[in-house]
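Morning F.,

Quick status update on the modeling queue. The single chain you submitted on Monday has been processed. Sequence for confirmation:
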Amino acid sequence: MALALLAAPATAATSAGGGFERGSEAPATGAPTIPEALLNSLLLLSDDACEVRYVPGSLDRAAHVEPWLRELATGAAKRTRVAAPLVALVLPRDEWQQARLPCAYGVPCAAGDRVLALPAAGDSGTVALWRGILGALPALEGQPLMGTAEEASSLVPADAYGSFLASRDLVRAAGFAADEPWVTDLLAHAVALDAARQSRSGRGEALAAFWEVVRGQGPPASRPGAPLLLAGELFRQARIFLAAQALLGSDGRLPAKVLRKMQEKGSGVLRAADVRASWPEAMSNVPVPDPM
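Structure tokens below.
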């Protein structure tokens, strides 16, 4: 699955049966071309919902990524009735550079349609990166199997942000198409949070805590030393996440049927004006900035 998703213009999302549909596809524009030799060297951890490709020696990290990636894919399919597999590439710093990924090491990176690159290990660079954005790294229980506690904790924000990026691909695969990018982002946050809550793994609370910390740091201009572009995008997404929490409502479920009817009313496009009108409280509590 991973090789097909990386090598192609996007292929159709798989049908899950039992009333599930095939996902509609958007081309993976601007996706990096991963060298075939690197892909062929990766080991595989997989199930029906996801694949994790990893370098030898990174099994523990891959085994940590696989449950939340599966949780996201299966939870999204349950709500949208469209099954779309996800792929993660777990790469150390050297292999990250070999992959020619456009993102700094430590930042999750789109590597194809429904393919997400994640750091295999924390190091001094990932610690500095996320400390500069968050102010402090999240506390972890116990001792990591590899590296220091700080290095391990610098992977937590990468996974939290990565789940949003992967969820955005799932929203598109499910056939949602918006007239403004922030609407797609809104649905991506809602899908990610809904899926995490379905599993009752505690990840829903962890996602909310991550975005609350990002939002609490304020705009990047108020934080000397923070990487401006990344910190600015994270702050924008933190505000959208708050709106997504309100969108889910008291039952915490994505209102997929309502959204599809709204998109049908908009001639195949989910219009931002209709979203604002349908959930005025959610949109007024957290002003969602238009893309710059």
